C-alpha cells in the first residue's frame, strides 16, 4: 500500500496545476552561475538544468551539422543540474541536448534542442557552439569598460536598428547592414554631410538604444541580404545576431564584431543600450526551455493552454526562480562580456516587480550608472495580477527602472491607435494636461488637472527620472508620418513647425529624452505604421533627408545640447521650481523653470509653445519680473548671442511657434 501511495504522490507532483501554480514549485533551484558552457583551462564543460529528467545526453558535432560525431551522457549533479567535461581531442564545434523527461509513470525523450544558455551558435542558431570568449575579442578590448555614470548631464537616447543605419545607398557605408558598417568613420551622404557613426557624434546623443541584437529566429542568416525583421522573436538570448555579422560560418565573428561596435561607440563618447525581450520566446512547445523542463518556464491559463500576454504565442514566467536566475545570468553576461551600458525591457509589464528589482539591484552593484527602462504594459491579458507586475502604474515600486510615458506621446500628437486623431500640437486643447504631465515626468504637480490626463489619472512617478519622454519610436508611425496623416490638409512648412514643437517638448522635459533614428530630419517610412518586416526600401534611413531638412536637424541638435548642458532640465526639486501657464481655449503653454538652486549658467527659463493657428501675445509677468530676460530661441531660430527683449513687456508668438527666454540670475 505504501508503494502505491508514493506512486500517487509522485504523479500528483508531476501533473500540471491550475493558474500560476501549474508549474512544479517543488523543483530544486540551482544557485550556481555556471550553467551553459564554461572552460576548465582548455577543456569545455557543459552544464544544463533539467530536474525532471531521468537522463540527459548531448549530441556533439564537428563542421557537419547534420550528423553527430558522438552522443554522450551527462552526469547528474546538484539541484537538478547535469554536466559533462568534453574531450578536446574530439574536435567538437557544436552541440545539442536531448532530455528524457518523466511524464506520469512514463519517460519520453525530448527533441534535440540548443542550449538556452548558449554564448555562441551556428548559422541560424540551430546548434550551440563551443567558443572561448577570451579569444574572441577585437584589438584593445581589454581596455574597454562600461562608460561611467553621467554626472550633471541630461540623457538623450537615440533608438537605432543596426540594419536601418547603413542599408540605404546614401549612407556612404561600405559594409551595409552590418555591425562593422556602423563603426565606419568618415561616411557622408551625397551632399557631404556626416552619416552613421559620425552623425551620432555630431548630433550629440548620450545613449544609442539598439533594437534587438541578440540571436533572433526570423531572419535567414545564410541569405546574402536576409529578409528584414526587427528581431522581437528571441531564439538565443546570450549571443549576438548573425545576420549583422560579416561571416556567418564562424560563430566567433559576430562576437568580435559586436564587441568592436561597442568599443568604437565608447571611444566616441556614446553609451550602448540593448533592447532585450525576455517576455516571450520565438518558439513555444518546441523551445529549448519547454523541451528541457516542460511546464516550468511559461505561464499557463487555468485550462492548461499557454498564456499570451506578449501576443506572440507565449509569455515567460519571471516569478519562477530559475527563469529569474536565467534573466540575471543573461544580463550579467552582456554587462561583463560586452560592456553594455543599459537595457530596455520589451513588454516589461509581463515581468513581476520582485524580479525586476532583483535584477536592477544586482546589476547596479557592478555598474551604478546602468540605465534601465521598459514598456510598462503588456500586449494581452496575463494570469499574473496587476499588483505584482512591472506595469506603468507600479513604477514607483521599481528600483530605478523607468517606463515609457505614453500619456506624453499621445498627448503631443494624438493616440497611436487613432492615426487621424489630432494631439495638442494640432490644436486639441483636451490634451494639454497630458503634455504638462509629460513635461514634469509624471510626478505630483499642483498645475496639472490629473483627471484630464490620458490613461493615468493620478501621479505615477516619484521622480521625473522614472518616465521616458518620447513622441515616437520604432512602433507605430514615425512622428513625421503621423503629422502628415493627421494634418494632411496643412502646408508642409506648418507640419515642420509642429514637428519642431513636439521635439522641443520632448527634449526640454524633466525626464530622459528619447526619439527614434531619423526623427531629427523628418524620417518617413512611407506611411507604413508597423514596419517590423517591411523591406529596406521602407526601413532604411535615407541620409539625404539630412540635407533636405537640415534646419530640423540643426534645431534638434541644439535642443539636445541644451538638455545635456543645463541642470534646469533635470531638476531634483520640481513642485516649487516649475510653474506652468496653460490656456484651455487656445492650448498656449508656458513652462517656467527656476534653476537658482543649481549651477546652471542660466538661473531662470521660460519656454512658450503656441500650438494654435493664431497669433498669441506672451505676457512675461505671468511668471516673474519682466526685466532681465533675453531671447535664446524664437520661431525655431537659436541666436548665437542672446537677443534683447523688445521694449514692451509682451511678445507675439506666431502660430505653431515656440520661444525660449533665459535670465542669468
Most strands sheet? 8 strands, parallel, barrel
Q: With helices defined by DSSP (H or I, 4 residues minimum), what is the helix count?
A: 14
According to DSSP, the number of beta strands is: 27
Rg over CA atoms: 27 Å
**End-to-end C-alpha gap:** 89 Å
Overall average residue pLDDT: 94
Q: Uncertain runs with pLDDT below 50, 5 residues or more?
A: 1-23
| Strands side by side in the biggest sheet | 10-11-14-15-16-17-18-19
Estimated helix fraction: 10-25%
Coarse shape = elongated
Strand content: 15-25%
Name the structural class: alpha/beta
Could you characterize the architecture of this molecule?
This protein has 665 residues and is α/β, with parallel strands linked by helices. The protein has 14 helices and 27 strands. An eight-stranded parallel β-barrel has the order 10-11-14-15-16-17-18-19. Strands 20-21-22-27-24-25 form a six-stranded antiparallel beta sheet, with no helix packed on it. Strands 3, 4, 7, 8 and 9 form a five-stranded antiparallel beta sheet that branches. Helix 6 (321-338) runs parallel beside helix 7, helix 10 crosses helix 11 (492-507) and helix 11 packs parallel to helix 14 (550-565). The longest helix has 18 residues, at 321-338. It is elongated and about 90 Å long. The termini are far apart. The model is unreliable at 1-23 (pLDDT under 50).
Amino acid at each position: 500500500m505504501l508503494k502505491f501511495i508514493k506512486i500517487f504522490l509522485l504523479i500528483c507532483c508531476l501533473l500540471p496545476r491550475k493558474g500560476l501554480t501549474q508549474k512544479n514549485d517543488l523543483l530544486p533551484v540551482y544557485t550556481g552561475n555556471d550553467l551553459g558552457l564554461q572552460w576548465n583551462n582548455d577543456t569545455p564543460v557543459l552544464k544544463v538544468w533539467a530536474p525532471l529528467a531521468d537522463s540527459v545526453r548531448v549530441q556533439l558535432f564537428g563542421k557537419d551539422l547534420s550528423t553527430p560525431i558522438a552522443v554522450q551522457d551527462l552526469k547528474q549533479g546538484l539541484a537538478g543540474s547535469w554536466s559533462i567535461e568534453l574531450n578536446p581531442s574530439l574536435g567538437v564545434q557544436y552541440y545539442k541536448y536531448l532530455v528524457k523527461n518523466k511524464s506520469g509513470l512514463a519517460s519520453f525523450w525530448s527533441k534535440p534542442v540548443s542550449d538556452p544558455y548558449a554564448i555562441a551558435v551556428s548559422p541560424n542558431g540551430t546548434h550551440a557552439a563551443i567558443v572561448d570568449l577570451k579569444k574572441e575579442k577585437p584589438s584593445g578590448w581589454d581596455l574597454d569598460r562600461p562608460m561611467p555614470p553621467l554626472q550633471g548631464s541630461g540623457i538623450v537616447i537615440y533608438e537605432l536598428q543596426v540594419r536601418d543605419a547603413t542599408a540605404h545607398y546614401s549612407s556612404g557605408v561600405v559594409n551595409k547592414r552590418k555591425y562593422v558598417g556602423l563603426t565606419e568613420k568618415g561616411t557622408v551622404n551625397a551632399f557631404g554631410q556626416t552619416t552613421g557613426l559620425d552623425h551620432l557624434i555630431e548630433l550629440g546623443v548620450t545613449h544609442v538604444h539598439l533594437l534587438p541584437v541578440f540571436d533572433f529566429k526570423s531572419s535567414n542568416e545564410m541569405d546574402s541580404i536576409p529578409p528584414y525583421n526587427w528581431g522581437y522573436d528571441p531564439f538565443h538570448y546570450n549571443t549576438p545576431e548573425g545576420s549583422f555579422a560579416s561571416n556567418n560560418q564562424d560563430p566567433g565573428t559576430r562576437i568580435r564584431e559586436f564587441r568592436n561596435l561597442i568599443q568604437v561607440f565608447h571611444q566616441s563618447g556614446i553609451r550602448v543600450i540593448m533592447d532585450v525581450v525576455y517576455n516571450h520566446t520565438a518558439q513555444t512547445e518546441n523551445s529549448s526551455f519547454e523541451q528541457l523542463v516542460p511546464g516550468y518556464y511559461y505561464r499557463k491559463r487555468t485550462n492548461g493552454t499557454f498564456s499570451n500576454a506578449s501576443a506572440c504565442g507565449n509569455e515567460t514566467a519571471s516569478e519562477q526562480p530559475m527563469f529569474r536566475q536565467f534573466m540575471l545570468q543573461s544580463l550579467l553576461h552582456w554587462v561583463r562580456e560586452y560592456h553594455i551600458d543599459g537595457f530596455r525591457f520589451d513588454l516589461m509589464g509581463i515581468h513581476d516587480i520582485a524580479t525586476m528589482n532583483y535584477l536592477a539591484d544586482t546589476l547596479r552593484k557592478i555598474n551604478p550608472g546602468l540605465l534601465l527602462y521598459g514598456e510598462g504594459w503588456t500586449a494581452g491579458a496575463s494570469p499574473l495580477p496587476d499588483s505584482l507586475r512591472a506595469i506603468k502604474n507600479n513604477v514607483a515600486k521599481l528600483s530605478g527602472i523607468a517606463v515609457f510615458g505614453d500619456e506624453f506621446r499621445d498627448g503631443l500628437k494624438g493616440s497611436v491607435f487613432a492615426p487621424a486623431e489630432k494631439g495638442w500640437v494640432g490644436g486639441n486643447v483636451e490634451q494639454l494636461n497630458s503634455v504638462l504631465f509629460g513635461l514634469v515626468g509624471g510626478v505630483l504637480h499642483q498645475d496639472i488637472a490629473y483627471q484630464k490626463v490620458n490613461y493615468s489619472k493620478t501621479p505615477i512617478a516619484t521622480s521625473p527620472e522614472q518616465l521616458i519622454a518620447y513622441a515616437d519610436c520604432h512602433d507605430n508611425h514615425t512622428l513625421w508620418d503621423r503629422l502628415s496623416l493627421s494634418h494632411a490638409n496643412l502646408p508642409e512648412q506648418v507640419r515642420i513647425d509642429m514637428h519642431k514643437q513636439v521635439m522641443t517638448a520632448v527634449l526640454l522635459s524633466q525626464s530622459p529624452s528619447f526619439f527614434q533614428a531619423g526623427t531629427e530630419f523628418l524620417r518617413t517610412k512611407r506611411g507604413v505604421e508597423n514596419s517590423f518586416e517591411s523591406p529596406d526600401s521602407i526601413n532604411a534611413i535615407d541620409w539625404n533627408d539630412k540635407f533636405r531638412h537640415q534646419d530640423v536637424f540643426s534645431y534638434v541638435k541644439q535642443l539636445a545640447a541644451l538638455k545635456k548642458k543645463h541642470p534646469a532640465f533635470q531638476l531634483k526639486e520640481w513642485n516649487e521650481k516649475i510653474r506652468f501657464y496653460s490656456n484651455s481655449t487656445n492650448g498656449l503653454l508656458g513652462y517656467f523653470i527656476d534653476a537658482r538652486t543649481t549651477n546652471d549658467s542660466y538661473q531662470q527659463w521660460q519656454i512658450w509653445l503656441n500650438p494654435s493657428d493664431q497669433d498669441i501675445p506672451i505676457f512675461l509677468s505671468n511668471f516673474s519680473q519682466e526685466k532681465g530676460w533675453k531671447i535664446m530661441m524664437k520661431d525655431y531660430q537659436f541666436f548665437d548671442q542672446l537677443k534683447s527683449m523688445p521694449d514692451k513687456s509682451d511678445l507675439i508668438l506666431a502660430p505653431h511657434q515656440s520661444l525660449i527666454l533665459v535670465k542669468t540670475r
